[in-house]
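TEACHING EXERCISE
Course module: macromolecular assemblies
Task: Read the component lines below, then compare them to the predicted structure of the full complex.
Student: A.B.
Group: 4
Components provided:
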Amino acid sequence: MLTLHDYMDSGNGYKVRLTLAHCGLPYRLVEHDILKGETRTPAFLARNPNGRIPLLELEDGTCLAESDAICWYLAEGTPLAPADRLARAQTLQWMFFEQYSHEPYIAVARFWKHYLPKLTPLQEAELPGRMEKGYAALGVMEQHLARQPFFVGGRFGLADIALYAYTHVAGEGGFNLDAFPHVNVWLSRVAAQPGHVTIDHKN
Amino acid sequence: MLTLHDYMDSGNGYKVRLTLAHCGLPYRLVEHDILKGETRTPAFLARNPNGRIPLLELEDGTCLAESDAICWYLAEGTPLAPADRLARAQTLQWMFFEQYSHEPYIAVARFWKHYLPKLTPLQEAELPGRMEKGYAALGVMEQHLARQPFFVGGRFGLADIALYAYTHVAGEGGFNLDAFPHVNVWLSRVAAQPGHVTIDHKN
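Instructor-supplied answer key:
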């Protein structure tokens, strides 16, 4: 059976849990508290030298890191992953957009504001720029979703899962989504998909 | 013919140029000076609402953004992209590692130190943390390359291209690679591949 090393509040982990749920794949969940440094222990670093969850452990012990790579692995050959070459690349485009232009701002602002007892002076100084770039990412999403119901090819897939994970909890980072009506409708559309599970759902 | 919108000093752009060279694909190069805001004009934003190079324009005008998604698109079916499902996911794992745990530190430090006339006080305050995380990424690479000649499956491929781009110019960001002998040998190995082109090479 697959083993998922994860932390329930992680949106990156949630991407994998959502993909597993949509694919109907059973798995064993092993939780690691990132706030207590449980992904930086020698035992964890032996599995992922980059010290991060989520981490998928295959039946033979092989470990795969990076949420989007894990989702890609799980979803290949399923309706979540497009068969068309261009649509596959567009899916990856949005997944890389999420990791580079969305997560470092929206997820990090959420982590700082929602999980840390107090920000450092440097975090306080960085926060306005992170909020600004987070809103810029939401603007790019809004513009795209004004013209189509899902991110790629008119159907629900991996790009939606990748972007849903932290967008649906952006409010915990202090982001107000009122100015992004198409993003809001899309969030509802993703949550209404058959097989959907919430971020706190344990298999 | 394919059109690549790019900025020659960009490592992200170089990934695409290197992939195009290894695939032997002809293309038209259109340069945009990011230092002069040429990727934030209305004309450019109509092509990529996220306002970034590299951007691949297909013959029918379809535009594909995000360097790693473009490389994936170009290399599918070539020896640069593994055929095996796990090796494909491992390739993506390293490409996402590069965009999340490497580029924001090594490429950004290079951009700040090598291209900006003067850092803002916030950039000065952020720099030590960025350097530390850049060295951490190099440490993860060193550990992996101590055991194998290339990042995935024992052969040169997309993961190597993605990580070579900014690692080979890390010195311009003030990174000293002396403590990473396996990274250095790997850099030489990548540069010795048939079909290799340098970052300043124009097709």
